[in-house]
Amino acid sequence: MTGALAAIMLEGLARPGSRVDEASGPGLSGHELDTQADLVAGLLLGAGVRPQEPVHVAIGNRASDLGALLGVWRAGAVTVPVHRSAAPLTRATVERATRARFLIDGLALDTIAGEPPPERPLLDGAALVVFTSGSTGTPKGVVLGHAALARKLSVLDGLLAFRPDDVVVVPLQLTFIFGIWTSLLAIRSGATLVLVEKFTRATLAGVLAEKATVLAAVPTMLRVLMTDGAPAAPRLRAVLTGGEALSPSLARAVGGSWPEAEIVDLYGSTETGSCDFCHRPRDTGDAGSIGVPTEGVSFRIVRDDGILAPPGAVGELRIRTACGMLGYLDNAELTRTAFEADHFRTGDLARLRPDGQVELVGRSKEIISRGGNKISPLEIENALCAHPDVAAALCAGVPDERLGEAIHAVVVLKPGLALTADELRRWASVNLERYKVPDVIVFSDVLPSGATGKASRAMVSTLTLAGTDGSSAGIHRPPSGL
Asked: What's the total number of domains in the chain?
């Protein structure tokens, strides 16, 4: 038994013209990927792989990575995507968690452990174990099932309508659920998939100018593409984004640069199978919300006291879906606490707007507690990005002896423009309450980001505390009255 996702891939790869290319050059046709998958399955079965045994797959965003993924499924095993350049500590952590015996890298099979892993009932019907640190910093193995992800792909097919003549460009790593589902959906549709090994503006500019019709990228990547004027994209019809908040200013920049391309902002988590909400900013003429639930998804917004929040009030967003995870690998207690009844606790704070859309306020674990005031970093970021000279901003709370937490901000200016921290702070004080104005502002060429390319608030202090010269960092110490 190969599983529903393997069957979907095989059907897509059999379509005329199906292929997976690489930004650096031609990749593999559907027939070649099918053949590679057979070889990988043969290697694993010959080595004695057991049904539902986790197998690591080295990911470098190569066409062969998808052949390896299919080969693992054909062998009846479970794929664990691990980036080829992952830090040794990260690799060791994942190996300890999965206790996997085998690693597939292209057409090479390596033995990484001498003993087979234990049998785990949780892996029955599993397709993937995707490791995500979320807001805790500790990697968690999210177990995703064939049936649930196949159902999600069916929903996304109706929502996004990929076509056989599409060229879908994916600079997202295939260790990231956004990159995984976009690639699988492109194959399912018989489209040409173009994988980008390493995201750079120059690499994407070439692919966009030549052939791209669909681009999947996190907002941090889109901000880089908007720098110095967006590259030409004459065939681009859709921009899929998600993984972090899409600010109103970035949505306007993308829409103004590529007016023929529809922006589709998708919200979800690895645990829920991704894409639980969809927002098309041009539908309402604005951005700043995550839109409305996708098919099969329901939600509730719950206050700290466990009571449902009325419209307009803030609470934790909790999601119910049939496309969610089977659980966390070897952590039944964490799985149990991740849910309230049958609703996944996202950790995101949200409110229901009068127009029926859901608006994110921030993450409960990222809320800044400054001088007794609870402040959403997302609110500050949106305010800073409204300044005409600001391209992007990222805020976080940093421990402070007097305030409890101080507000630190990393700001990226638009090309060729100059602005001081004091000037920006004075401007912000007109648009924000006094206690929400950042205490520390530093300017940078790019926002700090993590392994998946998403902006990382956890890394803000790395930049803001790097210098000891308060004037260069834009440090402001407020009076005792806060």
From this structure: 2
Domain co-membership, 460 together with 319: no
Angle between helices 30-46 and 63-74 (to 10 degrees): 50
Burial status of residue 462 (CB atoms within 10 A of its CB: 0-12, 13-18, 19 or more):
exposed
Q: Are 258 and 233 in contact (CB under 8 A)?
A: yes
Per the structure, the complete domain to which residue 110 belongs is given by 4-352
Q: How many CB atoms lie within 10 A of CB 404?
A: 14
Q: Is 418 exposed, middle or buried (0-12, 13-18, 19+ CB in 10 A)?
A: exposed
- pTM for the predicted model, two decimal places: 0.82
Phi-psi region of 429 (alpha: psi -120 to 50; beta: other; left: phi over 0): alpha
Place of tokens 């190996």: 95
Buried (b) or exposed (e) across 337-356, using 16+ Cβ within 10 A?
Answer: ebbeeebbbbbbbbbbeeee
Query: Per-residue pLDDT tens for 317-365?
Result: 999 999 999 999 999 999 999 999 999 999 888 999 998 999 988 777 7
Rounded distance between C-alpha atoms, residue 194 and residue 238, angstroms: 15
Question: Which of 438, 431, 430 has its CA nearest to residue 398?
Answer: 438
Kindly state whether residues 206 and 118 are assigned to the same domain.
yes
Q: What is the DSSP code (8-state) at residue 310?
A: P
